[in-house]
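Before our next group meeting I need something from you. Please put the record directly below this note.
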Amino acid sequence: MSNIINDTEKLSNDIYQMLTKGSDNDVTIILEDGEILAHKDILAARSDYFATMFASSKEYKFSEGKNDIVDISYCSKLIMDKIIIYLFSGKIDLQDLSLLQLLQLINMSSMMMLDDLKNGAQNFVRAKLFWRSIRHRHTDAKGFQSILFKALH
């Protein structure tokens, strides 16, 4: 019997539900093709970028912290949706993104100091390009199988 109760999956789901149900959203993120409503405290807890933006320092007070509006109008809603869902759930699905969108996600993740997301997306792109390259070079099944075997062993 364990002396530790681990409910992190439920916690993650509960926080994600806060985003999807829209309960008490207190910040609007303006994007090039729409906007997203979210919780400042969750954003700040999960991202140094947002934590700095919303900080209540006597020396520095960013307009985003005062106005509850974040202007990231150089980013698409699709990419920011992925990032916000990642921040609220700890999960992200990259399969449905094109290579260009993946590169935009990596760029935004880097700018927002989300190193785990950036590194994970970079690794996904590398793997995607690797397999695409192998498929194009070896169209016959035997050649592909031998390359696959060598890559995995």
Remarks:
- The beta strands are 27-31, 34-38, 69-72.
- Residues 115-137 form the longest helix (23 residues).
- The radius of gyration is 20 Å.
